[in-house]
Every structure is written in structure tokens, then in C-alpha cells.
Amino acid sequence: MDHGPVSEGSNAPSWHLSAPANTQAQGLVVSGFANLPTGRALFLELGWKGAKKKGGGAWLQALAEVAKVTDADGRDPRAVALGFTWSGLQKMGLNENALASFDRPFKEGMFQEDRLRRLGDRRGEAWQGTVIPGGPKWSGNTPLDDAASDDEVRAFDDRDEIREARVKTPVTVHALLLLYCEHDEAAEAWCAEVSAKLAPLEVNVVHRLPLDLRLDKQGIAREHFGFADGISQPIPFEPGTVVHRDGSDVPKDYWNGVPLGEILMGHMNGHNEVAQGPVIADGIGDTSGLPAHPKGVGFKDLGLNGSYMVVRELKQDVYAFWQSMRANAAHLRERDPEGSAHVTTTWLAERVVGRDTHGNLLCPLGGTIPVANNDFGFWDRDRHGAGCPLGSHVRRANPRDGLAPTEADKQTLLDAANNHRILRRGRKYGATISVPPTPDNVDRGLLFVCLNTDITRQFEFVQQTWILNPNFAVLYDETDPLIGPKGSMTIPEQPYRRIIDVETFVQMAGGEYFFLPSMPALTYLASL
What we know:
- By secondary structure, the protein is an alpha+beta fold.
- Helices cover 22% and strands 20% of the residues.
- The protein has helices spanning 21-24, 58-66, 86-92, 96-100, 104-108, 113-118, 184-198, 318-335, 345-353, 378-382, 393-397, 410-418, 456-467, 519-526, and strands at 16-17, 38-46, 79-84, 122-123, 126-127, 138-139, 171-172, 175-181, 203-212, 235-237, 242-243, 257-259, 279-281, 299-301, 307-316, 361-362, 368-369, 423-424, 427-429, 445-452, 487-491, 498-502, 506-516.
- Strand 16 and strand 17 (368-369) form a beta hairpin.
């Protein structure tokens, strides 16, 4: 799939980073470590209080002894990735001015009022149906900053003050540690070793998820709904930096190419600007390992080859999904026996997703585009959604050139769509369930992870303007039928269109924006 419940899948990355970026960026940037099918997500809280911290950077030094973060050179038999929330960096003791230099969405956190609204999680005082009952379990619990707590009285507002209420979750997460290895026994032993190493430094595992990317008997990595996973990723390019295994440059891919600055800070992005990252004044701690900032005299570049990591724990109700598809299919056949004989449960589920269960893209007249072919546009192949419905999950997550109003606008709309791409690195969690499923009480879903350098323009845009837009692609009052709220979905067919009702199948159980530091930035944080 193209967003929501997806992971990198089993395919090896087609691109790599050359020196020096290959040893400066974290390995998660270039790989989802598909050769390591098992993993663990450890959500950490830095437990010390007050100015005299017991842990500080020392816990990162201790962590490196048992779980050293993997760089993009990728030569370790196991793999590790590490990200920090804004509150986690504050807890680490990062300089106040350095904290202020991060992008606003990261500083405000995912649970800031406006961000919750545009992500479809909360309206006013009420959590939406796409959030687990009672509200999310964890976040960074980012404190409101001055910008978010604006108390300036404006014209036409008779309130004495305008102040945003803080939304707080039961569990506070300061860092996310991702561990990847070969099997469950090794993963459990590794988790125990890491926990024992960090506990004396008051770094506590407050939440954990088992991560899985094992292939089925057909050699396909599937998410819990039963569909092939990890399809359609952006392909970064930057001459001299993004290369093939043989060292040759990866050219700009016409359909899926994005400048490296969409993924890594300090590189040129889709707007022909250097993707900005945080800075630190030279001499604030041991900054000797950080590069000088190219434009800030007296500052070191804390962000170069780092990224922002969006993380959302998404609980999937597999039984409800397939029951809904079965009930809708039966209803359509009952109402139109002659014209709906082909409407099966799977046929309907595939239209909701936009691909068949093996990952092939649906096309008109019953055809498909093979999963191996990612070089296509919707305008020429399926302009009106007769194969892959306009409102399906796939088309919303990456509309390609499909939103072009005229043929002359195809290139403009394709370029615009690629300026909002995200690099996905998620994995499913919880026990795999057979399809068709039987109801159980197992907690399962996706730990959605994506990398981008502009949270507002990339992740939040995709979520608000494509996934949850009720008027997407000439539709009316419909949102994403797979990961959106309860509603309806239109499926074009000849001679009539079909409209089905869909329930809420995916609920957010926690989430936050993380900073994925470069290797030099991690070394700096360890010196605090």
C-alpha cells in the first residue's frame, strides 16, 4: 500500500549514500532492514529530575555498548535506530537556543491543538473515532511554548485571553529505540540487555511493541489486513551523494524521484532550497565533531544528515474490516443480482485499497499494473478511477498526476505530488491473523514511521489534504476508506457507480514527532 498501514517491505533499497553521508546518516534512512524480519520498538522515558541529571548524555554512551546505532553504511549483523522527541531533547539538556532552532511542528508536538485537528485526531475537547477509546496512550507530552500559548487579545474576540489547553497522555516518551534482529528469541534477549543497561541511569522502557516483517509462503510481506506491503516509495536523488552499489549516481526517477533534501536535512529539497535543520552555537559543549553551518557564522550544524521521524501507533481491526467488506458485497449482490455477480468480499476490499492482495495496481477492464512496475501515471491509465477508484487509499496517498484538470497539467501535478512524498519505514506489530479472520482480543496494527524534512508540507499535507479531504478528486463528503473515519466510498463502474458504507478500521493509539539525529549529532548529545 502507499500510506497508512505500510512498511518498507522485502525489497532491498535501490539507492545508497556515498561518503561521507553514508557514515553520518542513520541506517534507517536508506533501509528498513528487511533482511532482519524481527524487531522491537522500545519507548523510553528519561526519568531524572532537576538540573543535576543522573543520566544526561551518559545513557547514550552506555547504550552504545549494547545497541550501537547503525549508520547508513549498513554493515552490522543487527540494526538500531534512535530518535528523540522535543521534550526528550529538553530533558537531555540541549541548549535552549538550539531547541528553539527546530521546526515549529516538532517543537509543538503532534498533540498541539491545530495539529490534532488537521491530522483528524481531535476536535475541540473530543477525540475522534479514529483514536482509541479514552484517547491515545503515549506522546512526547511536549510542553506548550509561547507561540502555542498566545494570550494576545485580537479584534472581534471578546475573550479576556486566548489560550490553548494542553493535551497530555498517560505515558511520556522522550526517545524511541528501534531494534532489528533475526528472530524473536534474540530480540527478547536483546531487549532485556538494553533495559538492564539503561535502568541504573534512570532511563526506563515505558512502552514497547514487537515489530514484524516476515514473509508469507508466497514470499510477500503483508500487513494485517492481508495486502502486500511496502509498495511505491519515493526515490531520492542528489549527484555525488545518492548512488547505486557500484558508486554511479542515481538519476532522477521521472515518476518517483525526489531531491534528497526531502528526506535529509542540509540537502537541496523540492523547492530548490536547502532543507533546514537545528543549529548549536559553537562552544556550547563539545561541538568539535559537528560541521560548521554553511550560513550561520559561529554556529555548528546539528541537523545535517538528520531527519524528522513521524511515528504513529495505529491499531487495526482486521475482523471489522473483512466483516464490513463481506456485508457490503452481500448487500450489493442482493440489490442487483445480475449486475453484481462479480462483487465478492475480496473484490470490494481491493477497491478500498486500490491494489489487489498481491500488490498489483487495479486498472480498468479488470487488468492490473504489476507490483514491480511503479512507473505510471493515473491520467493516461485510469483517469476516472474505473480500475483504481478515485477515493481509494492508494490514490489518496499518492495521486501522482491524477489530479491534473487537463492533459497539459499532468507534469505540473506530478511534480507537485512528489513535493509532498514521505519515506516510510514502518512495521506491523502484534500476532498475524489469518484471512478471513475470526474475532480475538489481540492488539495488532502498524507502527507507522516515516521520514521527512518538512513535517507540515509533507506528512501533515498528505494526511489533511489527500487522506482526510472530503472533496478529494471531485468526490463529496468522503475520506480515506481504509484509514479514515466512518463514512461512504464511491466505486465507479459501468453503467452505474456503487456507493458503500465503511466503518473505522484503524485507530491511533499514540504518536509523536521525533528528531532522527545524524551520527555526529548523536555523538554530541552523548557528550552533554
